[in-house]
Amino acid sequence: MTFEALGLNTSLIKALTDAGYTAPTPVQQQAIPAAIAGKDLLVSSQTGSGKTAAFMLPSLHRLSEIDPAAAGKTPNQEMQAARARGERPRFKAAQPKMLVLTPTRELALQVTTNTDKYSVNLRRIKAVSILGGMPYPKQMQLLAKNPEILVATPGRLIDHMESGKIDFSQLEILVLDEADRMLDMGFIDDIEKIVDATPSTRQTMLFSATLDGVVGNMARRITKDPQIIQIVSAANKHENITQRVHFVDDLSHKNRLLDHLLRDDSLDQAVVFTATKRDADTIADRLNIAGFSAAALHGDMHQGARNRTLDSLRRGQVKILIATDVAARGIDVPTITHVFNYDLPKFPEDYVHRIGRTGRAGRNGLAISLVNHAEGMNVKRIERFTKQLIPVNVIEGYEPKKTASASRSAPRPGGWKPGDNRGGAKPSGQRTFSKPGAPRKEGSTTGGGYKGSNPRSTDGARRSYGDR
Ligand code: ADP
Ligand code: MG
User: Fold this and answer.
1) What is the DSSP track for 353-389?
2) Whether 19 contacts 115, CB under 8 Å
3) What CA–CA distance (Å, rounded) separates 190 from 12?
4) What's the confidence (pLDDT) of residue 193?
5) Degrees (nearest 5) of the Cα angle 347, 353, 357?
6) 182 C-alpha vs ligand 2 centroid, how far in Å?
7) C-alpha 355 to ligand 2 mean position (Å)
């Protein structure tokens, strides 16, 4: 299968060849011809499977076929013309042809960068990112050029819409990237408002890890007779990523083990995931003192600082990135060999996203979770979600005092709650013991599994990473 066979024009094919893409991935093979034909798409396919190109290539193909003569003057040109006529220029809203919504700034920038790469030979087509944290005048300048493609996080986009800076009446293509994640982050009302502002004649493409539940409902509301593409492949199971669990007794054991694992000869670059922004900072400081080149990445950092950190990571100046979930989304650095879960993620699907930071571009990766004995049940939840068993490893000299099998078969009653992952650090007075098999208290994560938990109940916490 080749990109030519999918019907893309020669300008795009040349850009792909220059980018080193030789053949379309499975999701691209299915999505591209359908999208060129103008169909709505609902697509689920895992991290790293090439979804950006799956929606951007057919869209660029379609946009490049629009007659430039019909496109009219840009807002900048109109304002200049008005000045020439001696009139006071009125700001005219940007009228994009395509909008891509993404959950985070990093992901939006990634999409824009990829779009620039694919559209190098299409001079007329420009893509810009509209993001929270970017200076307002700079965004106004970008909008005044009337770019064909906007890539945006929902919050900031709403601000511009409400102040009349963007007019979606000419929109032809709407893409929701990582739709499940946007809903998790509480963007549903913003998304509906944005969708309502676009013409009902638009083409809509929605990408999500799952098409069940809330996402599925929204997906069906905003699409017309969509083609559903669900890709289950080796890459989805992350078969090129070796996964391991190491049980730890307490925080000091965890830190010693992490330090040891980070000195592995096969480690080129690594991402260490923590549950909190504060831990990300603390661990980055500690690792720097220990002689590693480490940096933190989280939602409390200014956009400029986040970009600089990601650049240093890409250039190899930063070897170990300590990150929280949302900040690390969309990181695509092929030289990341290792992912560490210093804390387990709140949701099993975050685990899948995290480990997908390694094993990029067909390489192998290693994903290691450092797990307190009390968290055995959470490992099981992840295993149920990924339908894969994660082997438990023990390193000589770093053995846990308890055996792994004991940890796994006897999760602490009461289950695990967000933030409750500092082994041994809990005040003993708060521990609740009950006999195995006894009815569980409210808040237990066992039994109901992931589906039983309510992602919305954590909206407050997730929102704090958001992009408004
Ligand atoms: P997803 O959105 O599914 O997680 P991305 O679109 O971010 O995946 O793509 C993952 C990586 O694969 C990127 O580095 C991208 O440049 C690369 N890639 C995508 N399609 C191809 C292809 N057909 N050939 C080679 N590399 C590709
Ligand atoms: Mg993607």
Assistant:
1) HHHTTSSGGG--EEEEEEEEGGGHHHHHHHHHHHT--
2) no
3) 33
4) 96
5) 145
6) 13
7) 14
pLDDT digits (tens, 9 = 90+) for 102-122: 999 999 999 999 999 999 999
Q: Which tens digits make up the pLDDT trace of 411-430?
A: 333 333 333 333 333 333 33
Distances in whole angstroms, Cα of residue 443 to Cα of each of 239, 343, 349, 427: 33, 19, 20, 18
Place of tokens 């996080």: 153
Contact (CB, 8 A) for 354 and 367: yes
| Residue pLDDT, tens place only, 287-345 | 999 999 999 999 888 888 998 999 999 999 999 999 998 777 778 888 999 999 999 99
- Give the C-alpha separation, 319 to 157, whole Å: 34
From the CB of 375, is ligand 1 less than 6 Å away?
no
Domains of the chain with CATH codes: 4-230 (3.40.50.300), 241-407 (3.40.50.300)
- Residues paired with 367 in a beta bridge: 243, 339
CA-closest residue to ligand 1 atom 23: 24
Query: Which range, 87-101, 142-156, 207-221, has the best average confidence (pLDDT)?
Result: 142-156
Residue 183 confidence (pLDDT) above 50: yes
Q: With CA atoms as reference, report the closest residue to 183 among 347, 417, 50, 343.
A: 347
Q: Which of 332, 354, 360, 363 to mutate to test the pocket of ligand 1 (most atoms within 8 A of CB)?
A: 332
